[in-house]
Amino acid sequence: MPKPTAILLGGDRYHHADEAFAGVGPALEAAGLTVVYTTDPTLIDADHLSDKRLLCILRDGMEWPEGHETPYEVWMRPHQEQAIEKFVAAGGAFMPLHNAG
Q1: Predicted confidence (pLDDT) per residue in 58-79, tens digit
Q2: What is the Cα–Cα distance from 98 to 82, expressed in whole angstroms?
Q3: Does residue 71 fall inside a structural domain?
Q4: Residues 44-81 as b or e (16 or more Cβ within 10 Å = b)
Q5: Which of 100, 68, 66 is nearest to 84 (CA)?
Q6: In this model, does residue 2 exceed pLDDT 80?
Q7: What is the pLDDT of residue 32?
Q8: Domain assignment of residue 26, yes or no
């Protein structure tokens, strides 16, 4: 029987992905989860969450596609918010860390 899977979304301007993955990932793996590591927020959707047990986010909600001297954009879209809500309502676990809360 395969181990339950988690998605760990990490990395932003202030929280480097490699540090998020090195700090949080081993704890999730030690809890018996297979971890899918990503820096791509577009992977947070209903399709990618459908077979997961846990969604863990360690990043803020901002992106600077034109550079840090320009205004930021919010990366999460309404369909992603809805996917997370449905995921949790169906029994999925959601662990927003630090400023992801």
Answers
A1: 998 888 888 889 998 888 999 9
A2: 21
A3: yes
A4: bbeebbeebbbbbbbbbeeeeeeeeeeeeeebeeeebe
A5: 100
A6: no
A7: 94
A8: no
**Is 60 in contact with 11 (CB distance < 8 Å)?**
no
CA-based nearest residue to 59, from 6, 18, 4? 18
Give the whole-angstrom CA distance, residue 35 versus residue 3: 10
Give a yes or no: residue 94 inside a domain. yes
Domain membership of residue 47 as a residue range: 5-14+33-100
- Please give the radius of gyration of the chain, using alpha carbons only, rounded to the nearest integer: 14
Query: Whole-model pTM?
Result: 0.90
Assigned domain for 58 exists: yes
Query: In terms of C-beta distances under 8 Å and separation of at least 24 residues, what long-range contacts does 63-70 make, across chains too?
Result: 63/12, 64/13, 68/13
Number of domains within the chain: 1
